[in-house]
Specification:
The chain has 91 residues and is α+β, with helices and mostly antiparallel strands. The protein has a 4-stranded antiparallel sheet. Belongs to the costars family.
Length: 91
C-alpha cells in the first residue's frame, strides 16, 4: 500500500471510530486508534501514517510523535472533507 492509500484508509478508520463534530470534522484519541484491532491489522506503522496525513493537512493533533501509553489521550482531529480537499480549484 502506498502512502496515499494508507492516508485514505486512515481517514476511513477515523470516521469509523471517531465522533462527528458540528463542523463536519471527526475526533478520536490516539489510544482508541492504536488499540483498535482492525487498525492494527491495516497499518504497519500507524504513527508514520498519522504524520503523513498531518503533513498533507488532512488531520491535526498536538505534538509531532505519538507514543502508546504516553499519548493515548491526545485528540486527533480529521478535518472536514471540504477543507482537506481544497487543492481542487473550480473555475
Amino acid at each position: 500500500m502506498n502512502v496515499e492509500e494508507e492516508v485514505g484508509r486512515l481517514r476511513e478508520e477515523i470516521k469509523r471510530l471517531g465522533k462527528p463534530q458540528d463542523d463536519g470534522s471527526y475526533t478520536v484519541t490516539f489510544g482508541v486508534l492504536f488499540n483498535d484491532d482492525r487498525c492494527a491489522n491495516i497499518f504497519e506503522a500507524l504513527v508514520g501514517t498519522l504524520r503523513a496525513a498531518k503533513r498533507r493537512k488532512f488531520l491535526t493533533y498536538d505534538g509531532e510523535l505519538l507514543l502508546q501509553g504516553v499519548h493515548d489521550n491526545v485528540e486527533i482531529i480529521l478535518k472536514p472533507e471540504a477543507t482537506a480537499s481544497d487543492a481542487v480549484v473550480k473555475s
